[in-house]
Specification:
It is built from 3 helices and 7 strands, in the order H-H-H-E-E-E-E-E-E-E. By secondary structure, the chain is α+β, with helices and mostly antiparallel strands. It folds into 2 domains: 14-46; 55-164, Immunoglobulins (Immunoglobulin-like, Sandwich). It starts with 17 loop residues before the first helix and ends with a strand.
Length: 168
């Protein structure tokens, strides 16, 4: 039996060689590795990853914090933060009007992602259960943690998410 080739005996068309396969593999895995490295960089640079500095200590403090939250809820004390151009104020209200609810208020501003712009601020008593301070707040989302104290006792503790739309 004999096999006859047509034409001049040269192969026609494209031939997929080992070199082509090597290039395909390098491009395929190179793309995957590059995308993973870029995503890892953005994940590492944009979020502190810190939820609790020491999870064991946080778990041991849980019951005390839960009891404090129940006590604050029962007291009915509410707070409202207002952010102006360079001023921040915090107004406390209670079901029973009367005496001063707190003697001092401490606010901590945290970005939901990242910690390079976070700051804390001790507010001054402006009378009428209103406390004010001076600090510029950049636009964007913030988590504001407020702690109000009467002496050394915490009478109000809350964390709220606010959106700052620019200067007012």
């Amino acid at each position: 039996m004999s096999i006859q080739q047509s034409g001049s005996g040269k192969a026609s068309g494209f031939v997929f060689t080992g070199r082509h396969m090597a290039i395909v593999m390098v491009l395929f895995f190179g793309t995957i590795i590059t995308v993973n490295m870029v995503m890892a960089y953005f994940a590492r640079s944009s979020w502190s990853g810190l939820v609790a500095e020491n999870t064991y200590v946080a778990s041991q403090e849980f019951n005390a914090k839960a009891a404090l939250s129940r006590k604050i809820e029962a007291a009915g004390i509410k707070g409202a933060v207002e952010i102006g151009k360079d001023t921040i104020s915090y107004q406390l209200t209670a079901p029973r009007a009367g005496d001063a609810i707190a003697t001092r208020v401490h606010l901590t501003f945290r970005r939901p992602v990242g910690d390079h712009q976070d700051f804390s601020l001790e507010l001054a008593d402006a009378g009428g259960n209103r406390f004010t301070g001076t600090h510029a707040v950049l636009p964007g989302q913030w988590i504001v943690e407020a702690e109000a104290f009467k002496g050394d006792e915490v009478v109000m503790h809350e964390a709220v998410r606010v959106m700052v739309d620019g200067v007012k």
